[in-house]
Amino acid sequence: MTAPAAGAADPGPLAMVCCGGSIPFAVADVVQQQGRRVVLFACRGWADPVQVARYPHYWIAIAQLGRFSRLARQEGCRDVVFIGTLVRPSLGQLRLDWGTVRAMPSIMRAYRGGDDHLLSGVARIFEDLGFHVVGAHEVAPEILVREGPLAQHQPSARDQTDIARALALLAEIGPFDVGQAVVVANGHVLAIEAAEGTDNMLKRVADLRREGRIHVASGIGVLVKAPKPQQDQRIDLPAIGPSTIDNIARAGLAGLAVIAGAAIIAEPIEVARRADAAGIFVVGTIARQGGS
Questions:
Q1: Rounded CA gap, 219 and 181, in Å?
Q2: How far apart are CA 238 and CA 263, in angstroms?
Q3: Fewest C-beta atoms under 10 Å: which of 104, 125, 256, 290?
Q4: d(CA 72, CA 231)
Q5: What is the Cα–Cα distance from 269 to 246, expressed in whole angstroms?
Q6: Would you state the torsion angle of the CA atoms of residues 201, 203, 207, 208, taken in this order, to the nearest 10 degrees?
Q7: Hey, what CATH topology would domain 144-291 get?
Q8: Are the C-beta atoms of 102 and 125 separated by less than 8 Å?
Q9: What is the pLDDT of residue 146?
Q10: Which of 97, 84, 80 is nearest to 39 (CA)?
Q11: Which fold has domain 14-141?
Q12: Measured in whole angstroms, how far is the alpha carbon of residue 238 from the centre of its chain?
């Protein structure tokens, strides 16, 4: 997305509901560089207060729909981006205001399913309030992973075989709304991401390796991340960043593959630096028919 051309309608400020990690701020920086004002709606307990302070912002609790709606309208925001890491909250953790109470029937319906069902339901709730939900990659396409190697090292033939197996597995489990990542080593599935998230899944692989439960040598195996086939790609695209690289190295894997054009990367220069230092590959790949 570029700044509006002369005579084009002004899209107005962009509201960003931001949670954990560095990606929200990378997106905000890109949008501001395009000349568009950004207003952060930072989720308490998740967003980094030091980083948030650099931008116009408001603090909100999870599910404070009334507060968000009132403040976003006050700021003139029509478009909304959801970005950042967040563990799915229980209904009991929601901080209800009147706007949330009125939306409770829709919220209850959204909770009756996996994470993608929940997030798609949340998007519909915001659209019912009159906002336009857009993907972070739509306002900041620079954050998407490009095709090809992102660092010095390249996947071997064995790595490529593991990547193809992982993509096929992700394509099969995607309809069950399970997760976006798997670890495959020498044809063996070592881990499938569930509620714990990618970083914790990688820590689990590292623990299994220390316990002697993984019988392939260190330096064999790949982490592969891909969006679910039915996923609303405006919300919760797979994301990688420097911490992903650190955890891949600790897990003793050879590298990482993500779907080019359908995954977000935070701090790409730092990702490449850490990958080169650790001797692992990072590659943007294409999801082929049938996941291979």
A1: 18
A2: 5
A3: 290
A4: 26
A5: 14
A6: 30
A7: Cytidine Deaminase; domain 2 (3.40.140)
A8: no
A9: 95
A10: 80
A11: Rossmann fold (3.40.50)
A12: 4
**Sign of the torsion angle spanned by Cα atoms 11, 36, 17, 223:** positive
Q: Which two three-digit tokens encode residue 154?
A: 């390249």
| pTM score above 0.85 | no
Question: Contact at 8 Å (CB) between 262 and 288?
Answer: no
Using the structure block, give the residue that is written with the tokens 């071997």: 156
Closest to 228 in 3D by CA, of 200, 192, 199: 192
Distance CA 283, CA 153 (A): 9
Q: In this predicted model, what pLDDT tens digit does every residue of 210-242 receive, in sequence order?
A: 999 999 999 999 999 999 877 777 777 889 999
Between 198-210 and 242-250, two packed helices, what is the crossing angle to 10 degrees? 20
Residues 69, 75, 76, 81, CA torsion sign: negative
Helices (H) and strands (E) in the chain, counts: 11, 13
- For residue 120, give the 3-state DSSP assignment: helix
> What does each C-alpha distance from 133 to 17, 121, 124, 139, 234 come to in angstroms?
11, 12, 8, 11, 7
CA distance 141 to 27: 9
Q: Nearest 5°: CA angle at 98, between 94 and 103?
A: 70
| Phi and psi, residue 282, nearest 5° | -135, 125
What letter represents residue 173's amino acid? I
Is residue 139 a contact partner of residue 29, using CB atoms and an 8 Å limit?
no
Tokens coding 280: 């692992």
The CA distances from residue 202 to 32, 53, 122, 140, 158, in Å, are 34, 31, 28, 28, 20
Strand partners, 41: 17, 58
Domain coordinates in residue numbering, the chain: 14-141, 144-291
- DSSP structural state of residue 289: G
Angle between helical axes of 115-128 and 104-111 (0-180°, round to 10): 160
Mean pLDDT value of segment 19-23: 87
Q: Which of the 8 DSSP states describes residue 69?
A: H
